[in-house]
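Q: What structure does this chain adopt?
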Amino acid sequence: MKLAAEKRGKGALSDLRRNGRLPAVVYNREINVPVSVDVRAFDKAFRAVGSSSLIDLDVDGEVLSVLVKQVQMDKRRREPLHVDFFAVSANEPVVVHVPIEYVGSAVGVRAGGQFDVQRREVTISVLPRYIPNHVEVDVSDLEIGSSLHVSDLVAKLPSEAQVMDDLELAIVAVVPPRVVEEEEAAEAAEPEVVGEKEDEEAEGEPAEE
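A:
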């Protein structure tokens, strides 16, 4: 995925945003460069690759391989306000969160169980060239009461990757269906009889002459 960026000075960030530009910074241990990107182009790129895949960021003709490290959001408008790009080095491992994609239909779900996803990503340390876009997990054989763990992902990841999460953590399970107890009619509150009180009061009133 490619994304164009421009170096920026110390001007007001609000002016950039009004012109459809998103303030950002490109950094690592050696560089720290303020830039801006087209907000729509960034949104398209981020939706496509997220924070776990490399983006070729063209900064005024110099192409850097970067990861999206942080996106500051406007909570009310749900729009990005600022982006941190981390420029990777080909020979230095990086820590990334790789999305987990669950495929298949669990037999336990077809038997009435509930599909309980406990983790949607796995954290690994790996050289940039080995970063996977996602890790695919087939859940077809999961029965009621069974689960998969981080350890089950190891064989599906690049051999060069080091898993940073606890291997014993569950990632997905099929749990028994919840039993909802029905309230008995005897325990229900006595229904209100509309007009009863009015009728009783009417009976006690003297008749008009």
